[in-house]
Design brief:
single chain; 9 helices; globular
């Protein structure tokens, strides 16, 4: 029996990167995994991987920019598996990496919608189903970028800070329903990491050296187990927490200032 046996979990953005790693880890722990992903090819592939690992799966094409799509994914999960125990809010839609003064209202709206609003929609849609099960587990994703005020990510930093506020609010209010709500700030070798590593020789080595543990995280083997902990009964007395899962990167932090930006501009 795995830690998540007989549990039904929905993961947004599980078609690749950290979401894919979490889905695979959930499968190894016995969960039925719903892949809520906008890309049908990658979503279906991860669903096949879950089944190959011995888990049950369902792929649902989901656009987190649309409330109806998010709510439909929750309904489809419940309709297919008979309930919902675990919700992992991982997906977001990135915007161009430009300075704060160059970020547009449209960029801000896109980021807020795909993170704060999408998480809000999914949590509220999942609530009645979790109450029907006598409780549930919600895991939201925030970012170390919030802590360091990462350059070129002003809209993302703003949205992820909102995720922390939403997580704590839900933890405070929904504890009465036996629902725990926690957040993690993960860094791992996902699609963006591999793209940067391919385009910038030495990037992977420099990234590893920045972390006290001296290596970069694996989505399935390093991030996945922490999400399993928060999704299982092992964390039954943990709620409202924000956990760094980054090999200790949050301790030294990192300098994100672009090299071409002068110290003073008047």
């Amino acid at each position: 029996m795995g830690l998540l046996s007989n549990k039904v979990a929905l993961i947004t953005g599980a078609g690749g990167g950290i979401g894919q790693g979490v889905a695979r880890r959930f499968a190894r722990e016995g969960a039925a995994v719903v892949i809520a992903e906008i890309n049908p090819e990658s979503g279906a592939q991860v669903a096949r991987e879950v089944e190959a690992l011995g888990g049950r799966s369902l792929y649902i094409q989901t656009d987190v920019m649309q409330k109806a799509s998010v709510c439909a994914a929750i309904d489809a999960a419940v309709g297919h598996f008979g309930g919902l125990d675990i919700l992992v809010n991982n997906a977001f839609v990135p915007t161009p990496n430009v300075r704060l003064e160059e970020k547009t209202d449209e960029m801000l709206e896109q980021t807020l919608t795909s993170t704060v609003k999408a998480t809000w929609w999914a949590m509220r849609a999942a609530l009645p189903h979790m109450r029907n099960r006598g409780g549930g587990k919600i895991v939201n994703f925030y970012s170390i970028d919030v802590d360091i005020g990462a350059w070129l990510h002003a809209d993302y930093n703003t949205a992820k800070a909102g995720i922390v506020g939403l997580t704590r609010s839900a933890a405070a209010e929904w504890g009465r329903f036996n629902i725990t709500v926690n957040a993690i700030a993960p860094t791992a070798m996902g699609a963006t990491f591999h793209k940067l590593a391919a385009e910038n020789p030495g990037f992977a080595e420099r990234s590893a050296a920045m972390r006290p543990l001296g290596r970069c995280g694996d989505p399935e083997d390093d991030i996945g187990p922490v999400v399993v902990f928060l999704a299982s009964d092992m964390s039954r007395y943990v709620t409202g927490e924000s956990i760094h899962v980054d090999g200790g990167l949050h301790l030294p932090g990192y300098n994100s200032r672009p090299a071409d930006v002068p110290v003073r501009e008047y």
